[in-house]
Write a structure and sequence with these properties.
The protein is an alpha/beta fold. The chain has 23 helices and 25 strands. It starts with a helix and ends in an 8-residue tail after the last helix.
Length: about 650
């Protein structure tokens, strides 16, 4: 069978199944017949698609290099619509008499472009903002679309924070202070009296309910923020004694950022609704029930309660939430409040894709093998060679054990100086060849020995990615968050290699070796062999939540280039905005260097080299030009 026959038998559909793009893509991503990843968007009654390779072509034509963070406005808009529409549908189905208002937590993605789009498109739904600091409150006050949209203030609040929120209330905005620690109430009341503005007050409760997942410590009685039941009673009594109980209008809880199991959500909503009913019974007018975040993103596409997935859809989430609230509040004859959710991750995750090119590869495979060993080969190398020659299906476990032993002995003898560099290199090559032969034989064995079960998964290449994990995918490094990662082209070809990704930082943690699998995590990803005459582009998907603002300056690799597009009515795409990533000049200033001073220092060194006749004046000019061009250039690898 020729290579062309193999290529013809593999199709884009096979690649779609291999990478699970239709499972985690939520209807936003697919492959076209050319083997390219496309973004899907609805325009009227028809669905249009835009190839990421066409987008990359436009990026390169505009003079921007990889890596690039691509934002797709249509996907963000659609997620806001889906969230609001699903809640309204669920309310109609359950006979709910209140309304729904979403708020976007600014901390999930503080970038100005993102907040501008959330507030602009969300205005039709009175979609508001959640602020957890003074800086975020300033953003919310400036960006909130209308007085009908909500501002929910969480986090620690000092007098200036409270004053800003009270001024917003004075201006007619619905700005709620959520009391999360006992000391906050006195600050709110003191500043309220000083400014003559009655506050809108909420309380955050500590649920006994907990959820699984990365963020399970956000909820439960051991959570950092929130009031115990006794502290909530104290708040009610304090407000009643001050004649301010009418200011208490909102109840809030937060179960976590990524809740994979719908049962945990239902349990938390039921407990919260009981608290709400009793607060009304205590005489607080209430009117708002804030269910916090938790609406998960299915990163692996398994649709299960796995930590990186979720076992429910958006409609099920909304229906279950409303069903529980209706059941509890009707039982206690309590008026239905406005329901709020702080869904951040599910709102923005899909809208951003990190695009990068692969710079090089390092293959774990044997090189050319001699017909026989040199006559002066040490005994351990001869033993290893004999293992290679005698390997068969019946002795595969024995040969594996022997190969490991002899290789370790050879390494020890090399450390002691009794084996030369060339002998060590030949031994490594023989060992790698043995391991590959064993791995290739496993499919023909009925019972694979336990020690060899994972052997095929560790025989992977290293693909060097033009990006920084620490800057663009900090959760992948810090908490082992997985993201869908795949090539964005050549997908009509079968990917015959497997690889992990290493970034361009000089840090052993700068790698990605965990990838989504169905209800599991795999340690390598299928990839194509690199071509000398073509760039190989890959994408990391669902990165819109948290990753843009949590990154650090490891190795002084700064923010990437950012491009925003909008898919238009004609099925094409418009470049809405282009933001150049950090230059070396920029990142040097972040760590308190003065770039002009560095240029001056280096210029003096170059002049000293001229005076000592080490270089010529013409060479000095060339060197200074290179230095100054570099300091103003992109921090990432440039062809």
């Amino acid at each position: 069978m020729t290579k062309q026959d193999v290529l013809q038998r593999w199709s884009s559909k096979d690649s779609a199944d291999l990478y699970g793009i239709k499972d985690w893509g939520a209807g936003y991503f697919d492959l076209n017949a050319k083997g390219e990843v496309v973004v899907l968007a609805k325009k009227g009654d028809r669905q249009v698609d835009v190839s990421l390779m066409d987008v990359i072509k436009g990026i390169r034509e505009r003079g921007m290099n990889m890596p690039v963070l691509l934002r797709i406005e249509n996907l963000l808009d659609n997620q806001i619509s889906l969230l609001n529409d699903s809640f309204r549908k669920a309310m109609k189905q359950t006979g709910y008499r209140g309304r729904y208002q979403g708020v976007f937590p600014i901390k999930v993605n503080q970038q100005a472009q993102v907040i501008e789009e959330v507030t602009r498109f969300g205005a039709r739904f009175d979609h508001g903002l959640e602020a957890g600091s003074k800086a975020e409150l300033i953003i919310a006050l400036a960006m909130i679309p209308s007085p009908q949209s909500l501002i929910v203030c969480n986090g620690y609040k000092d007098e200036k924070f409270v004053d800003l929120g009270l001024y917003a209330v004075q201006m007619g905005y619905k700005c709620f202070f959520v009391v999360e620690t006992p000391s906050e109430l006195s600050i709110i009341m003191e500043r309220s009296e000083a400014l003559g503005v009655e506050p809108l007050i909420g309380v955050r409760l500590k649920l006994s309910s907990r959820a699984g997942g990365h963020w399970q410590d956000s909820g439960g009685e051991g959570s950092i923020f929130g009031l115990t039941t006794n502290q909530m009673v104290d708040v009610i009594d304090t407000l009643r004694q001050a004649g301010k109980l009418h200011c208490l209008q909102l109840l809030h809880y937060h179960l976590g950022s990524q809740i994979p199991n719908i049962r945990d959500i239902r349990q938390a909503v039921r407990e919260t609704a009981r608290f709400y009913a009793d607060m009304v019974r205590e005489g607080a007018p209430m009117g708002y029930l804030d269910l916090g975040g938790g609406l998960a993103v299915d990163y692996d596409g398994s649709k299960t309660n796995f930590v990186h997935s979720r076992n429910y859809g958006l409609d099920e989430y909304c229906s279950d939430v409303m069903e529980v609230i209706v059941e509890v509040l009707n039982e206690h004859e309590v008026e239905h409040p406005t329901v709020i959710t702080e869904s951040g991750r599910a709102t923005v995750a899909y809208a951003s894709v990190l695009l990068f090119n692969v710079l090089d590869t390092n293959r774990f495979e044997p090189g050319p093998m001699p017909d026989r060993l040199p006559e002066d080969s040490p005994e351990m190398l001869e033993n290893l060679w004999f293992v290679r020659k005698s390997l068969n299906l019946k002795n595969i476990q024995e040969c594996y054990n022997d190969a490991i032993y002899y290789r370790e002995e050879i390494c020890e003898q090399f450390r002691l100086g009794t084996i030369t560099l060339r002998q060590r290199a030949l031994a490594d090559n023989v060992f790698i060849d043995i391991i590959h032969r064993i791995a290739a034989s496993l499919d023909r064995i009925k019972r694979v020995p336990r020690a060899l079960e994972s052997l095929q998964t560790v025989l992977h290449d290293i693909y060097y990615a033009n990006m920084s994990v620490f800057q663009s995918l900090p959760d992948a490094w810090a908490i082992d968050q997985i993201f869908p990662i795949m090539p964005v082209h050549r997908l009509q070809e079968e990917p015959e290699r497997r690889a992990i990704l290493a970034d361009i930082t000089c840090d052993s943690d700068g790698k990605i070796d965990k990838f989504p699998d169905i209800h599991d995590v795999r340690t390598s990803i299928p990839v194509h062999a690199l071509s000398a005459d073509e760039e190989y582009y890959m994408g990391v998907f669902l990165v819109g939540a948290y990753q843009e603002t949590l990154g650090d300056l490891h190795n002084l690799l700064g923010d990437t280039n950012v491009v925003s597009i909008r898919i238009n009515e004609k099925g094409g795409h418009d470049f809405v905005q282009e933001i150049e990533g950090d230059s070396i000049w920029d990142v040097l200033t972040y760590v308190e260097y003065e770039p002009k001073g560095l240029i001056s220092r280096f210029r003096n060194k170059a002049e000293d080299a001229v005076q000592s006749s080490t270089i010529t004046v013409a060479q000095r000019r060339q060197i200074m030009k290179a230095f100054e061009e570099s300091i103003r250039g992109y921090t990432y690898f440039e062809r």
